[in-house]
Specification:
Blueprint (H helix, E strand, L loop, with lengths): L5 H27 L4 H20 L7 H7 L2 H25 L2 H8 L2 H12 L7 H19 L8 H29 L1 H19 L4 H5 L4 H27 L2 H7 L2 H13 L7 H23 L1
């Protein structure tokens, strides 16, 4: 197997740092912008993704409109619903009821969803005995993290279920993108996924548009622009990597995302403290993800 190029590691690290920052930024923005209720959260998310999709359009190699016309509509809908709509319905709800630190760890479980789903949809090899053992250790780590997550974790059980549902949806969307990007390119598909998915989220939260827009100030605009830039950059880089590399290889390096998310949440969200369960469970989860990365690099 050829060693992975430096550009691969650089892009993975950029994605991890950006996505890791989303946990504390969104959590803090709920307080700073007085975002209340499910509808306002959906308008917040939808505005962010519509702007992110538009930011990607100038960098697309192929026409976005042409891709929309030519791409298989079923696969495109698969990506939009999985990678944007359902993933962020669950994600934004989970962050509203639980902590960014817990969320950062649990979203890392997307790697294991990929490991289970890729053989079914992409015909990759089934997990080996060692990989099943690593999956078991990760499950124990999740149980530890949920048992004693620390102060500021809110409704831990509900948050855990929502974060795991978000990571499952994201894994489904990534598999759909792997199937469609080979022919239609990852950038145009990413732009469509974010823009149309964002429009769907705006529609879901339409009953609270007025409540969100009347409170929109300069601070809110800057936060929205940063989150839009974050999504546009991270999704473009990551989906390009999905197009170029095996899903299994990428899933192995996703352990950097929860690592960055835990560190950045602990640093910037003062209302959250890291409990013993997060420390023990985090070590088990991150250790499992690292062990998985070693196995995949050998394969």
């Amino acid at each position: 197997m050829k060693p992975l190029p430096f550009s691969f590691y650089f892009q993975v690290c950029v994605c991890a740092l950006l996505w890791g920052s989303a946990f504390p930024v969104i959590k803090l923005s709920y307080e700073a912008l007085a975002v209340e209720g499910f509808g306002e959260r959906m308008v917040f998310a939808g505005t962010r993704f519509v702007a992110a999709g538009l930011m990607i359009v100038p960098f697309c190699r192929s026409s976005v409109i042409g891709t929309l016309r030519r791409a298989p509509k079923g696969l495109l809908l698969w990506v939009i619903l999985g990678q944007t709509v359902f993933q962020y319905v669950f994600f934004y709800y989970a962050l509203s009821v639980s902590s960014g630190t817990l969320g950062a760890l649990l979203v890392g479980g997307g790697s294991f969803w990929w490991m289970l789903l890729a053989p079914l949809f992409l015909k990759t090899p089934m997990p080996s005995a060692k990989q099943w053992l690593i999956l078991g250790v990760c499950t124990v780590g999740i149980a530890c993290a949920v048992y004693a997550p620390g102060a500021g974790s809110g409704r831990v059980g509900v948050g855990t279920a929502a974060f795991l549902a978000a990571s499952f949806s994201g894994a489904i969307g990534a598999i759909g993108l792997k199937r469609i990007s080979a022919e239609h390119g990852s950038r145009a598909v990413t732009a469509l996924s974010l823009f149309l998915g964002g429009m769907a989220l705006l529609l879901i939260g339409s009953y609270e548009w007025n409540g969100f827009w009347k409170d929109l100030g300069v601070e809110a605009i800057w936060i929205m622009l940063y989150l839009s830039f974050l999504s546009a950059t991270a999704f473009t880089l990551w989906n390009r990597l999905i197009e170029q590399y095996s899903v299994n290889v990428l899933s192995a390096y996703r352990f950097l995302i929860p690592l960055c998310g835990v560190i950045e949440s602990a640093l910037f969200v003062k209302s959250e403290t890291v409990g013993l369960g997060i420390v023990v469970g985090g070590c088990l989860i991150l250790g499992s993800l690292y062990a998985m990365s070693r196995l995949e690099s050998r394969r």
